[in-house]
Amino acid sequence: MAAPFRSRLTDWNVSVPLLAILVLIMTWGRDLSGPVVVVVALLLAGAVLAAVHHAEVVAHKVGEPYGSLVLAVAVTVIEVALIVTLMISGGEKTQSLARDTVFAAVMITCNGILGLSLLIGALRRRVAVFNSEGTGGALATVTTLAALSLVVPTFTTSRPGPQFTPAQLAFAAVVSLALYGLFVMVQTGRHRDYFLPVNSQGRVLGTEGHAEPPSDRAALLSLGLLLVALVAVVGDAKSVSPAIESAVAGANLPPSFVGVVIALLVLLPETLAAARAARRDRVQISLNLALGSAMASIGLTIPAIALASIWLEGPLLLGLGGTQVTLLALTVVTSVLTVVPGRATVLQGGVHLVLLAAFVFLAASP
Predict the structure, then answer these.
(1) Paired strand residues for 344
(2) Strand partners of residue 129
(3) Which domain holds residue 28?
(4) What confidence score (pLDDT) does residue 163 get?
(5) Which of 80, 109, 129, 133 is least buried, going by the fewest C-beta atoms within 10 A?
(6) Which residue ranges of the chain lie beneath pLDDT 50?
(7) Can you give the CATH number for the domain in which 187 is found?
(8) What is the pLDDT of residue 178?
(9) How much is the pLDDT for 37?
(10) Could you give the number of structural domains in the chain?
(11) How far apart are CA 192 and CA 267, in angstroms?
(12) What is the dihedral of CA 228, 233, 239, 240, to 10 degrees?
């Protein structure tokens, strides 16, 4: 028994997350020198790859759409913890952190992950095919959550500035949780087939492939290591964030751009998992990851921030600015046109990637 255990410890997908956690503990709360930042960044990248590997093991065991749900919720829960931690310790400069992070997550998932998945799927099969019923429902939920939580605060008048009153924030939190819970119930219940991969004739495909599913023990081990890897990803991202902040300031970029960089790092596991699914002609799984992550990012973050606002000092800025609202509206319209046919070419993938590029550029140069 000892020999197999030692051999598992030498596997890169086991040792790297554990080493990343160890380095995280040793460097937490300390000012890092240049060489240490490089080491942490390398372990961060390794933890991302390990998270993708273990997420695929879990997904293979439980099947879809549960596998996509596991990764989306796991990443989002830890992302919420990171946001709340930074807001508690950051003071006035973090008053808009929740808004900036959630909006960045929505743009990265709905344009970056979705666009990359469609592009890879279309390059492989000329046309990327997916279930428009399930994807359309997910997109409608994301749109509603984003509008209620990020757009409405800009236009409310009970308080000055883009913020909710306590009653309005409580309403947004309850609605966000209710919508997210309803979506999960639909996705994993009576309409589960809407979120499974389909072929060019619209018939549902199996997701397990020819390989035997992992044992219960292996799946539980991968689930634990997935959580360890995700904690390492978020924690190490926070550890290197001062270096990122210094680099951003040195490049004369706005402080809010730090949130974009960290969101990109946190969402790397889902991006790589979605790309791998698209390469295997499972575009629907990729879209489940993209839209499910956007939905979880809003549906879990807003309630958590609403609860944390009891202890947080200062205003909580949630409303988007004019440029951000325009980008969100353009993303929603483009996504609807992409999703409705249930088929997409490289053109649709390219359009979404251009929208992501526009978001990153305007975040750097508002």
Answers:
(1) 128
(2) 343
(3) 2-364
(4) 87
(5) 133
(6) 1-7, 207-210
(7) 1.20.1420.30
(8) 92
(9) 83
(10) 1
(11) 25
(12) 160
